[in-house]
Amino acid sequence: MRKFFEFLFLKEKQLLEETDAMKKYLVIGLGNIGKEYEDTRHNVGFLVLDKLSDTQNFSFETHKLGDLGSFKIKGRSVLCLKPSTFMNLSGKSVKYWMDKEKIPLENILVITDDINLPFGTLRLKTKGSDGGHNGLRDIQNSLQTVNYNRLRVGVGSEFSKGRQVDYVLGKWNDEERSALPERLERAGELIKSFVLAGVKITMNAYNNT
């Protein structure tokens, strides 16, 4: 009988831990660290999280493999990560914090720039290829799956042949910089919807807006 109650206790504990895990989310903004990369198109993932930290009133602190901040919303905990591994090694940071915080794959969201979308376009997807993006490729390799949520933020493709790297590592132009705050705030609203309403409802509400 004692073993039976011990078994029930362990099962209940396991269920509670699984329930707690389902209420935890990891939102990763991709970018490169360093002054020379600030205000560049490739760092739009960092910018989205910086804007979110303003609206949700939290700050970032430096930890292993990245800067972290967190906030709570309606009983859910959201951990925001800006990897410090540079873009091409983003997967190392993502995998480390997923494992450390015991966050399930379906509760992660990766924010990245996308040259295949017009400036400011938001597109949430549940899976897909890396599309030639080095950060997404490394995350895919680290997680051993393409089935993870990602928010692609359009940065446009106003560059000539062979100048893609210069473009994504370049600064926003005046028109983009003027429109950017509203787009960043919209992305923050999408993140909160993802946490509260789920990925499918959020896709329907925000994609292509």
Question: What this model shows, in words?
Answer:
With 209 residues, the chain is α/β, with parallel strands linked by helices. The chain has a single domain (28-114, 126-206), classed as 3-Layer(aba) Sandwich (Rossmann fold), CATH 3.40.50.1470. The protein is built from 7 helices and 7 strands; from the N terminus they run αβαβββαββαβααα. Strands 2-3-4-1-5-7-6 form a 7-stranded mixed sheet, with helices on both faces. Helix 2 crosses helix 6. The longest helix is centred in the C-terminal third of the chain and has 24 residues, at 174-197. The chain is globular. The mean pLDDT is 91.
Alpha-carbon distance between the termini?
59 Å
Please tell me how large the radius of gyration is: 18 Å
In terms of DSSP E residues, the strand content is: 15-25%
**CATH fold name:** Rossmann fold
Number of domains: 1
CATH class: Alpha Beta
Largest sheet, in brief, is:
7 strands, mixed
Helix coverage percent of residues? 40-55%
Q: How would you sum up the global shape? A: globular
- SSE arrangement, N to C: HEHEEEHEEHEHHH
Query: Which second-level CATH architecture applies?
Result: 3-Layer(aba) Sandwich
